[in-house]
Design a protein that fits this description.
The chain is of the alpha/beta class and 476 residues long. The chain is 28% helix and 24% strand. The protein has 12 helices and 22 strands. The strands form 5 sheets. Strands 1, 2, 3, 4, 5, 6 and 17 form a 7-stranded mixed sheet that branches. It has a 5-stranded parallel sheet with strand order 8-15-9-10-11, with helices on one face. Strands 18-19-22-21-20 form a 5-stranded antiparallel sheet, sandwiched between helices. β1, α1 and β2 form a beta-alpha-beta unit.
Length: 476
């Protein structure tokens, strides 16, 4: 079999793989990019972007339910053309995918971009498309795919995943959503707003990955007003004629389809990772250093969703950069370890559900102070007709340093970024209260939560006025 040599072999052409390739190119090293599945990133094809397109349509259509209180007539007659709406989502999806491919792999020669499945023969020897590639280093960035329990596969296309939902040309009358994490909750609410009868199930006692009990309670109550939510009991599916019966404890419903969003599994089947000679976890992934992305002391790196570390686009991009940077220098320097960014999680339901920094379950209740504000009285939120939810902020009692936050509220995607940047800079709650807050804006809700937190920490701003930094006295 023909064998060729390269500096770096990258398996997977998604967000992580493309970022790894960028680093290898920048280092002037030779490489080959291998992709066995659909080209284009998960985000563009079946994740972030088409889901946001569907969310936008659903939110705009749902907005009609608020128009009457504003004195806007005619909203009762508004209708939604489902096939046309789904076609719009698909058109946008195709645009996003084309943009990714057009700026990455479309014009790559066949010797640099191989579209086929790879497998390891040795830790640095890969077999793909009838040839063998010997590399000084390998980056594994094969991504992940939705998990469907084996017994449920017998129900055919009546059980669909998030990979399938954006291929539908019409929507069923009734659908169960099993798994109310980020994507299940986002799609569930969107479909409910588009007229589908949605029933949500999750074996856990919380939704959207929420850990803070106040946020979880608020989220469950708010989302539960739009579609029924049943938590804490695993769901089972049985066939009943042409439909499916979903049962969880005492709850039982008959639906046309089930959206299965119970998790994702890494794309490693057939890759032959056992050849690496290191232990694999239950998901089939070797242990790795999340700061260097290196597998043990091998010239092998993992990156992106396949790692399962932080399956989010900007994290996948960072992991790809780290892996690619180190892989390109494996023969001249020890892999470098990089500080990872402050964790940031955003659920694009309405209201947004967000988590930043240290999570609730990791906080030490003895040394942590918690501030909060409920959105009900916030002026800007009231004007928008979106005064629902709660913002919770966490700080170190002694130093006042901001540790983290969890929230459900309007414009949470923006507020959570502000908090994430503040945590990354090591700011205290006192520092933040000396920032300007315009009136009337949603950020005033965050200001109120910070004031509540400030009253519970020991570290206070000097100078007499909390919000203002004193100047030095004028010279005589």
């Amino acid at each position: 079999m023909k064998e060729r040599n390269v500096d770096v072999a990258i398996i997977g052409s998604g967000t992580a793989g493309l970022n790894a390739m960028g680093q290898v190119r920048r280092a002037g090293k030779s490489f080959v990019l291998i992709n066995g599945g659909e080209p284009g990133t998960t985000c563009a094809r079946v994740g972030c972007m088409p889901s946001k397109a569907m969310i936008q349509i659903a939110e705009d259509y749902h907005r009609r339910t608020h128009l009457g209180k504003f004195g806007i007539d005619g909203h009762e007659g508004m209708t939604l053309d489902i096939p046309e709406a789904l076609e719009h989502v698909q058109d946008l999806r195709d645009t996003f995918v084309d943009r990714v491919l057009g700026s990455s792999t479309d014009d790559m020669p066949e010797d640099l971009f191989i579209q086929d499945y790879a497998r390891f023969v040795e830790p640095t020897l890969i077999e793909v498309a009838g040839q063998r590639i010997r590399a000084k280093a390998v980056v594994i960035a094969t991504g992940s795919q939705p998990l469907v329990p084996e017994p449920w596969k017998a129900f055919g296309d009546r059980v669909i995943t998030t990979d399938d939902i954006f291929e539908l040309e019409d929507l069923p009358a009734a659908m169960a959503v099993i798994g109310l994490g980020t994507i299940g909750l986002e799609i569930g609410q969107s479909l409910a707003r588009m007229g589908v009868e949605i029933i949500g199930f999750d074996a856990l006692d919380h939704i959207a990955g929420a850990q803070d009990p106040e946020v979880n309670q608020s989220a469950t109550e708010l989302l539960g007003k739009e579609f029924s939510i049943h938590l804490g009991v695993p769901a089972e599916i049985v066939e009943e004629g042409e439909r499916l019966r979903v049962t969880a404890g005492e709850q039982s419903v008959l639906v046309d389809k089930v959206l299965c969003s119970v998790g994702r599994v890494p794309n490693v089947e057939g890759l032959g990772l056992e050849i690496l000679g290191v232990p694999l976890d239950a998901r089939g992934i070797p242990s790795f250093d999340p700061n260097s992305m290196q597998v043990g002391d091998l010239p092998v790196f993992v990156a992106g969703d396949v790692s399962g570390y932080r399956p989010i686009l900007h994290e996948a991009g960072d992991e790809g950069k780290i892996a690619g940077y180190n892989a390109a220098r494996i023969d001249t320097a020890a892999p470098e370890r990089f500080r990872r960014k402050v964790p940031l999680f955003i659920n694009f339901c309405d209201p947004n559900i967000c988590a930043v920094g240290m999570r609730w379950n990791a906080l030490d209740p003895e040394t942590t102070a918690v501030g909060q504000i409920k959105l009900a009285p916030v002026g800007r939120a009231l004007i928008m007709g979106k005064n629902k939810g709660v913002i919770r902020v966490y700080g170190d009692k002694a130093t006042g340093r901001l540790l983290g936050s969890e929230m459900i509220g309007p414009k949470g995607e923006n507020l959570s970024h502000l908090l994430c940047w503040a945590i990354a800079q090591g700011l205290t709650v006192g520092d933040l209260l000396r920032m300007p807050f315009y009136h009337p804006v949603i950020e005033e809700a965050l200001q109120a939560a910070l004031y509540d937190l400030y009253s519970k920490v020991d570290a206070k701003n000097g100078g007499g006025i909390t919000e203002l930094e004193p100047l030095a006295p004028l010279a005589d």
